[in-house]
Design a protein that fits this description.
By secondary structure, the chain is an all-beta fold. The chain is built from no helices and ten strands. The chain has a five-stranded antiparallel beta sheet with strand order 1-4-9-6-7, with no helix packed on it.
Amino acid sequence: GTSGSSGTDTSKDTSKDGETGTGKPAAPEPIELGADAVSVYDPYPRATETGAPVDAYDGDPETAWDVKVADGSQQMGVGLVVDLGSKRGVRVLELTTGTPGFRTEVYATDSSEVPPDVLDTRWAHVKDASDVGSGDKGKERIVLGGGSTKYRHVLIWLTTPPKDGPSVEISELSLLG
């Protein structure tokens, strides 16, 4: 039995970008990051110690990128910048930390070059998060927006250290678009 179909799909996809056919937004999908996609961003040389950025997104929860600033410091002023490889819509930042309680600001730019300073007007301020990782086993989910604005680089800017001291570790991070 044949159904009368010619084998050609004549249906039209009437969904908008980022939506399913039901009109509901599609679930955020992890953005694939290349081997050297993440680097330390320390424009004011504040880090006194720093680990390998790849440890923040290598898929191994036993490894972690860590950064330390001067003892007694009440500010971090250092972070991780993620190169998405091309302009992408970013909706969510997920991370896991073994040092809960720090504050972060998330910035993004559509520039192909990383702005040299966090105050550079090419960085767009996207979101702030306080007490990061204090919930479910150090996991944090920060909703950044609907994904309609496309960015090339995303900056996870650590601003205030946890109460335990001036160091932060991130064992896993992922961006979802």
